[in-house]
Amino acid sequence: MADKKVKSEKTPMKKAEDKIKTAYGAAFFSAVITFALAVASLFTDLEDFINIFSIVDVIFVFILAVLLVTIKSRIAAVILLVYYLFGQISMLINNPQVGGANTPMLIFFTYAYYQGIVGTFAYHKLRKEEKNKDDPYN
Fold this sequence. Notes:
about 0% strand
């Protein structure tokens, strides 16, 4: 029993970074799946399902994900959630038969992108506190 590893507690900064990872992981996953469907539509009869806007969507989501990874952008995190929800509402209006089948995905991505918002704001708050703590003139 003495050989059991003691679980170290996560620092607030690590918790914030983990939340950001959740969001950009979901964004990369979304971009890859959308890209795969767009490519598949070239070789199948999914042409009505995927169009040029799918490629624009992939690029836009990928750019937002990169901004989350590199600079932990709060703006990118908020845009990801708003853009996703807008897309889901638009899809529901244009294709109401999707309805409840989309609910698990809606919950997953909404949660992941919300975690990104929480994580980026916490990250920048903690960075500011660290900077102020280290500043002798403050």
